[in-house]
């Protein structure tokens, strides 16, 4: 595969828009779009671009297989419940499956929604007491493991409470760790930790509460 022959997403169009009409239009310039390679073999790197206020963006992307990752360069609370609902490549939703680029006319449309799902809960020790400052990890089901934008890692607060927001619908494994993980999307990390998890299935816009026991390996 020739990674030295770029093709441009500008050949047709590339833009964000909301899934429903809203009176208040987001300032899309607070977002970055990343075309994330599925293979981490060093042969190609993520391609990151700025988004214009109207939601348009332009990227030069080498041929290869990718998923789209969207990040915010703003700490505003308003973005916490946003999700990438669809990634339409030439009209086909490839958000979960990913896509390959090899040439030809390309139209990329990212559909956002402010109605993300959420998982909230508490971490308790073996005596039923809340555990503060513990990492809580959320990983998607096996069919979506290459979609790195839907993983999350948060910390419990002083009351042992955690809040995972801005999740796409679907099934997840949620578990605690002793220390923050360097890369929760790493297949080896997932293989050695997913059995610790509690399975949670979310419908679109749903919010579920769970109680997690501190993993045995984390007990003092």
Task: Summarize it.
The chain has 220 residues and is mostly beta strands. The protein is built from 1 helix and 17 strands. Helices cover 3% and strands 43% of the residues.
List the helices and strands and how they pair.
Layout: E1 6-8, E2 13-18, E3 31-37, E4 47-50, E5 60-62, E6 64-72, E7 83-89, E8 92-93, E9 99-101, E10 107-113, E11 117-124, E12 135-140, E13 152-155, E14 161-167, E15 170-176, H1 187-193, E16 198-202, E17 207-213
Parallel strand pairs: 2-10, 11-17
Antiparallel strand pairs: 1-5, 3-4, 3-6, 6-9, 7-8, 7-10, 11-14, 12-13, 12-15, 15-16
Gyration radius, rounded: 19 Å
Order of helices and strands: EEEEEEEEEEEEEEEHEE
* CATH architecture level-2 label of the largest domain: Sandwich
Low-confidence stretches: 1-12
The mean pLDDT is: 85
User: How far do the termini sit from each other?
Assistant: 50 Å
Largest sheet: 4 strands, mixed
CATH topology-level name of the largest domain: Immunoglobulin-like
- Envelope shape: globular
Oligomer: single chain
Output the number of helix runs: 1
Helix amount: under 10%
CATH hierarchy, class of the largest domain: Mainly Beta
**SSE-based structural type:** mainly beta
Strand order of the largest sheet: 2-10-7-8
Total count of strands: 17
Taken together, the total number of domains comes to 2
Proportion in β-strands = 35-45%
């Amino acid at each position: 595969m020739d990674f030295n022959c770029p093709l441009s997403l500008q050949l047709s169009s590339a833009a964000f828009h909301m899934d429903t009409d809203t009176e208040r239009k987001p300032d899309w310039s607070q977002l970055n779009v990343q075309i994330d390679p599925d293979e981490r073999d060093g042969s190609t790197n993520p391609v990151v671009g700025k988004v214009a206020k109207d939601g348009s963006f332009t990227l030069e992307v080498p041929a290869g297989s990718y998923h789209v990752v969207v990040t915010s360069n703003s700490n505003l609370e308003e973005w916490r419940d946003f999700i990438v609902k669809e990634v339409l490549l030439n009209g086909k939703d490839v958000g979960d499956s990913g896509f390959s680029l090899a040439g030809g006319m390309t139209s990329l449309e990212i559909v956002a929604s402010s109605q993300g799902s959420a998982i909230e809960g508490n971490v308790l020790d073996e005596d039923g007491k809340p555990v503060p400052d513990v990492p809580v990890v959320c990983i998607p089901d096996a069919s979506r493991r290459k979609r790195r934008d839907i993983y999350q890692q948060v910390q419990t607060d002083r009351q042992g409470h955690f809040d995972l927001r801005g999740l796409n619908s679907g099934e997840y494994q949620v578990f605690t760790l002793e220390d923050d993980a360097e890369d929760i999307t790493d297949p080896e990390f997932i293989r050695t930790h997913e059995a610790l998890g509690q399975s949670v299935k979310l419908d679109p816009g749903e919010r579920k509460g769970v109680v997690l026991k501190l993993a045995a390996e984390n007990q003092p």
